[in-house]
Amino acid sequence: MKRFIPGRAIFEPAALEYPVGKKLYSHFQELGIEIQTTPSHNRVTGIPGKTPKEKYVQAKQSLVIGVRRTLKFSSCKPSAHYQLPLATSCPGFCEYCYLQTTLGPKPVIRVYVNIEEILQQAQQYIDERAPNITIFEGAATSDPVPTEYLTGALQRAIEFFAQTELGRFRFVTKFADIDSLLQVPHHRHTEIRFSLNTQTIIGQYEKGTASLEERIEAARKTSEAKYPLGFLIAPIITYDNWKEEYREVIQELASQVATGSNPSFELITHRFTKKAKSNIEQVFPNSTLPMDEEERQYKYGQFGYGKWVYPKETMAEIKVFFEEEIGKAFPRSEIKYIV
Q: What are phi and psi for residue 308, nearest 5 degrees?
């Protein structure tokens, strides 16, 4: 798929004091991309659009280049100990995206240029937890791969964690542009994961992302580069033929991924919050996402708000199915969690 090229670049003035910020400013000038400024990457105004959908689309085409001043990292259960904040949002148009809750109807894409300061803070967290290993998640509030060719943030993070004894890094993506990372010395301290779903779900709800074939091919390359490999199957949605189609995905993985790679698996079922449902209905008014609250049960989450999840009977069925299918295809792999 084509690389992400923003329709406009919005710079926080302080970002121009960093090498990455200066490089991006020159890059976008050369491309003739509209350049704006903002006092803070947290206060971006002037995104065009008359309707919620138009504003949403324009926000997804807006790249904000800023300085991450808040260096207190959020927790990231069950994926890791902490988030590693390299970026926010992504150019994909996944209708179900959980960031509908936190980013709202204007999910501008943000990248942070003070990468070394962020990594220095990570080192402090590592030192505080020593002698235990500390794991950082690089995709908690974003998909960092589409902007990697611009910032080099993932490469720098991989290099950093390769040199740490007690730090580990992991990130997940729905994109396939990972070739620049394949030759980076990683010492197996970074796990690259790919978010997968059935052809039906990708086709209906994951517009603007890599195809299933592209993701699996990228996973094959990742495995050959000896990175620890993982797969996030999410969101798991039940529909006619769901078992057959998820089984096909797992079997295709088994046929493509190098023998002995033993990837990890994380499984997340579809859920939604009241705020996310409202935003989805405004931005995607014709969405067919299953969001009938009467067919779900309400559950409080770790971030202080509740969500509608599948009832216990459906969850049990999903759990049994995936444990059996992944167990047959990848008998030595670990399912880290099913939620």
A: -95, 125
